[in-house]
Design brief:
six-stranded mixed beta sheet; Tachylectin-2, Chain A; ten-stranded antiparallel beta sheet; mainly beta; 34 strands; Jelly Rolls; 2 domains; single chain; 2 helices; 2% helix; 490 residues
């Protein structure tokens, strides 16, 4: 594995042509995705600034252009009219050089559209000459001409009662409130994860510290909370967060998680009262930093996109100097005491050729969707299997235990072994339906119309492009069209 120097990781991009050779080399990788967003070069991680504005969806993501390394972060801009096909618009926010408030990275944040502008709220990662970290919450304004204008001063700096780990501002307008709120992931001085709350009557100034969010029962839950958000879905308040450096049952060696708590939010007392436990958003191996679109008018649902990756791990494409992609957009609703994640109905537009699924081993198209109606009883499915039907990722259902298991240990390429190779989910009502999206280097498995989702990166060899299903199922298979114009635009 390559060792990056600090100078290499935090090198400023001066000319897009510096990346042309890297892009040409990466474009030849067999693991480049067909219908998932991915970086033109280097590393992609958190989705940022997800909004509907000017008759299209805007989405930004964290981007380090030089390679598969967390270094000098930018915001890269992509747009879509339907959340299916996407277009690159190029880099939007670049770090300031010298002694600017974001001189070592434009970190994650959110957006709010007002009139003909989109206001972008982000964490400015500043480092002194001695490499001391300072976090600033910064603002930029993006006009319809696509040109961003940074405000010369940050909205505020880090709060002195907490460590400098204060980041990922989520801006929101709460119904029946005459002001805006912003929640920020943070860490207390005694290393406990928490959320800080700020408020203002105006988007562009006047932000004041309102206090620390109280979440009874979760005072010692990880040492840092990243990417917090409070959403209102179907009459329920939902606290989304990424607690770090904590072990959870059934999550293998994973220490960084993305999940949610259902409850009730009281903005007057800044108290989120839980109605149950913390639940992971995704039961797979690779999902983090989920972001919900900020101006959905339908109160019964939200739309979510996450980073298909994890902090502090590596992937086989690191050696090719690129890593990371985003999940498919998902519709969030509340069913019972859980969030339900379903593929957007419009994703059916991707379907191309319908293929008959034969008994025994079948070829697995590089970009495909597989749907199974499952009758009661045993199920075992190998995807990314070898030609004899062995190996690959095994999806199995134990009817007696009512458990579905995803096991990736049969793949030829093993990675992130410390995270574990198996994930299991209890299904209260048994298994009735699977919808599986396969791309060049990923698989997303939706169980029972959203009861559970398993998202994973996968890097098959040339021999691992088959599948076999054993069990009483009715199956449909489609090839999927390309949805991302992977053009070189910086």
């Amino acid at each position: 594995m390559r060792e990056w120097t600090r100078e290499e990781r935090y090198r400023y991009l001066k000319d897009p042509q510096e990346l042309q050779e890297l892009y040409s080399r990466i474009a030849a990788s067999p693991y480049r995705q067909t219908f998932h967003n991915q970086a033109v070069t280097g590393l992609m991680n958190d989705p940022n600034g997800f909004v509907w504005h000017d008759n299209r969806w805007h989405l930004f993501y964290q981007w380090c252009p030089w390679g598969a390394v967390h270094g000098l972060k930018h915001w890269y801009h992509i747009v879509s009219k339907d959340l299916v096909t996407w277009k690159n618009l190029g880099v939007c926010l670049l770090p300031d050089q010298a002694d600017g408030y974001d001189n070592k990275g434009v970190y994650s944040g959110s957006a709010m559209p007002i009139d003909d502008k989109i206001y972008l709220y982000y964490t400015g990662n500043h480092r002194d000459a001695d490499w001391t970290r300072h976090a600033y919450t910064c603002l930029a304004r993006l006009g319809n001409d696509g040109w961003p204008e940074k405000y010369p001063l940050p909205l505020f700096g880090s709060h002195p009662g907490y460590t400098e780990h204060q980041r990922d501002p989520k801006i929101m307008k709460v119904p029946d409130q005459d002001k805006y709120y912003m929640v920020i992931g943070a860490q207390t001085l005694d290393k406990r994860g928490c959320v800080l709350v700020y408020s203002s009557d105006e988007l562009q100034h006047g932000w004041m510290f309102a206090g620390e969010l109280k979440v009874p029962g979760f005072e010692n839950f990880g040492d840092m909370w990243e990417c917090p958000s409070i959403e209102h879905i179907g009459g329920h308040d939902v606290l989304l967060l990424c607690p770090q450096h904590i072990s959870l049952p059934g999550r293998g060696g994973t220490q960084n998680h993305n999940g949610y708590i259902l409850g009730t939010m009281d903005w007057d007392s800044l108290t989120f009262t839980p109605d149950g436990n913390f639940h992971v958003l995704d039961f797979g191996f690779d999902s983090y930093a989920a972001a919900c679109a900020n101006n959905i008018e339908d109160e019964d649902k939200a739309i979510l996109i996450a980073w298909m990756g994890l902090p502090d791990v590596s992937y086989p494409t690191d050696e090719e100097d690129w890593a990371g992609c985003l999940t498919l957009p998902r519709e969030l609703t509340v069913r019972g005491r859980r969030l339900i994640q379903q593929p957007l109905p419009v994703l059916k537009k991707l379907r191309n050729e319908k293929i008959i699924v034969q008994d025994g081993v079948n070829a697995l198209p590089k970009a495909s969707e597989l749907e199974l109606d499952c009758r009661p009883g045993f199920l075992r499915m190998n995807i990314f299997a070898r030609e004899d039907g062995t190996g690959g990722i095994v999806i199995s259902y134990d009817h007696d235990k009512k458990e579905i298991t995803v096991d990736r240990s049969g793949m030829e390429q093993h990675f992130n072994l410390s995270e574990g190779d198996m994930r299991t989910r209890q299904l209260e009502h048994g298994l009735s339906h699977l919808r599986i999206f396969v791309d060049s280097s990923s698989v997303e498995i939706f169980v029972n119309d959203g009861d559970a989702v398993f998202t994973s990166r996968v890097f098959p060899t040339e021999e691992e492009h088959y599948f076999i299903i054993k069990g009483d199922t009715f199956n449909r298979l489609w090839t999927l069209k390309a949805a991302v114009k992977d053009t070189f635009l910086v």
